[in-house]
Amino acid sequence: MTTTATPRHPGAHPGRTAPGAALAVLPHVLRGALAWTDAHRAEFALPDDVLDARTQVNATLKPLGELAQLCSTVRAATAPGTPEHEVAGDLVTYAWEQLDEGDLLLDLLRTEPFAAYPYEIYAAFAAYGLRHGGFEALARPLTATRAWAHTEQHANRQLGLINSERRVGVVTHTDAGAVLSRTWLGGFAEPWTFEGPSGYALTHTVFHLTDWGRMPDRVPEKTDAYLRTWLPAWADGCVESGQWDLTGELLAVAASLPGPAAGELLDAVWPVLADVQHATGCVPETGVPVHEDAPTAVRVHEDAPDPYPFIDCYHSTLVTAFAAALSLRSLTDGSGPSRERHTP
C-alpha cells in the first residue's frame, strides 16, 4: 500500500500475540476515546451560518453526522447502564439538539432536495429512534423519483444511500447485491492494489452493507473469506505507514464479520493502536504519535493540552471508539446482531 507517514517505531508491525491481548487494552481504549470526544463536544457544534451556501459542509455537518453515526453504534454495542453506553447516548442526543431536533435537516432538504448527505445524516438518527415527521413527509416523494434512483455516484456511496433508505424504512431504490458487485471489495480486487482510497472505499462498503456493524449476516460468504484472508496484511501495512485512522476502520471491519471473531488479528493490532492513543484519549489520523509522560489512567479535563488540532484527530478518535466497541462485542460474547447468513 502507499506509504504516507513514518511509524513511531520504524519497521515495527503487529506480530503474533497471546490470545486476550486485545481484551487487555480495549476497555481502556474505548473509555479514553469516548472521554476525549465528550470533553470536546463543543468542537462539533454547528455555526450560526451553517445553512449559508459558503459554509463548508465537511467542517460542520460532516463531523456532527459522524459523531451521531459512530456513537449510536457504540451505544448499540455496549451494555445498558455502563458509562460507555450512557456517554455515547448523551453525544447522540447532543448532535440531535445541534440539528434543532431535525428542523435544520428539513431546511437542508428544502435547499438541496437531491443531495444525499442530509438524508444520510437523518437516517443515522432515524435508526436510533429520533425521527422528524416533516423531514420524512418531504423526503418520501423525493426518494421515489427517477432522479433520486439514478443519481450518479460511486458504488460504495450508493450502498450508503441504500442503507439509509433501509434505516428510514422506505423501499430501496435498487438492489444492494448488484451494487456490491461493482465495488472494489465486491469485485475481489487484487489484494496488492490496496492503498488509501481503495482502503476507505472497502471499509465503507462493509459499514454500509452491515449497517455499521449491526448486521454481519449481510456479508456474503466469499466476501467474508476474502476479508479474513487479506485484512491482516492490509492492517500490517497501515500500521507500518502510520495510517491510524484507516487501521481503526479495518479493525471495525474485522469486528463486523459474521461467524467467529477474528481474534488473532484483533489481538495483534489493538495493542499497537492502544500505544498510539494519547493519554488524553485521542488518536491521530496519521503520522508519528505524540507521547508524553503521563499516568496510565486516562486524564481528560478542560485544561489538558491537546496534542493535535481537533480536525486532525476527531475522526480517528471516533473510529477508535467505534471499532473498540464492536471488537469488545465480537470477542466477549458474539451476541448482538443476527448471524444468520443471507446474501444482500
Give an account of the 3D structure.
The protein is mainly alpha-helical. Helix content is 54%, strand content 0%. The protein is globular, with a radius of gyration of 19 Å.
List the helices and strands and how they pair.
Blueprint: H1 21-39, H2 61-77, H3 83-98, H4 103-111, H5 116-128, H6 133-142, H7 146-149, H8 155-168, H9 176-180, H10 196-209, H11 221-240, H12 244-254, H13 263-276, H14 314-332
Helix pairs in contact: 1-3, 1-13, 1-14, 2-3, 2-5, 2-14, 4-5, 4-6, 5-8, 8-10, 10-12, 11-12, 11-13, 12-13, 12-14
What tags apply to this protein structure?
344 residues, mainly alpha, 14 helices
* N to C succession of SSEs: HHHHHHHHHHHHHH
Determine the mean pLDDT. Answer: 90
Radius of gyration: 19 Å
The helix-and-strand class reads mainly alpha
Helix proportion range:
40-55%
- From the N-terminal CA to the C-terminal CA, the straight-line distance is 29 Å
Please indicate the percent range of residues in DSSP E strands (runs of 2 or more).
under 5%
Main pleated-sheet profile: none
Low-confidence stretches: 1-12, 294-302, 334-344
Count of extended strands: 0
- The total of helices stands at 14
The 3D shape can be described as: globular
